[in-house]
């Protein structure tokens, strides 16, 4: 693990903190007997699908998250076709539409009945919206999916996460929660806040500002970092030895990144395939290099503890985010 206290961030800084000098196959541990969940993991064209693939190759049993059975089964079939030596039983569908919080909670509760351990939870699934789309509970789609769905999932699974982490057979810091974020958190205009639901639904200029979709997405990625900080604080207060991180996968060849930087830019030309976008979340989830210095931190590629923006370091905003999230879920009768 490296430290990068001078890592700069900003709208023109979609960069890497250190070169890629390791590979999952050679530098990550054998995961036989480990169990994990990856949301948004149903396509090998995506970061999540590549995370699932590598975890399975390392021997883990992976629950593959996706919004429909068809998508998940297709993703699992693609992985097994690519790597026919993998055991099909180690790739298990985890079907839940992240826009439907009740469905997310029910699938998580089902998981608690299916397994006796949970070693890593990778909250990777997400959306990018072109317009401000408010759901029935008054929350825009970016935050409803990218933040609240994963809050629901994470807060439903503590019985197994804690049990696994506190087991005498589990090494210190081996259980992980990974909230996949993005350097896009650094481009949101200030001042912003998570203090009220009205603040959450900031449209950042709407259709009058071509950057508003990127700002809304970045705002949801800031929520991932603040959630990580507050969740880690709460786990530490309860002496539960789980490491929570918020990695930036890097500048990856995805539709969302194309919308941020444009396809005719140097940033796009220098971006990486999804297979390499999986590496930093993988490092956060299972690398033996992860230690106490990573707790509650934003992680840059490839495995570098990095500085946040001032907004994402604000403990008051982390508490605001948690409070309003609970208020929303209370109104949805999911607490």
UniProtKB/TrEMBL annotation:
UniProt-listed Pfam families: adh_short (PF00106)
Stated family: Belongs to the short-chain dehydrogenases/reductases (SDR) family.
Record's keyword terms, sorted: NADP, Oxidoreductase
Keyword Cell membrane set for record: no
Name of the featured protein: NAD(P)-binding protein
GO MF, any single term: oxidoreductase activity
Domain of life assignment: Eukaryota
Organismal lineage: Eukaryota, Fungi, Dikarya, Ascomycota, Pezizomycotina
SUPFAM superfamilies: NAD(P)-binding Rossmann-fold domains (SSF51735)
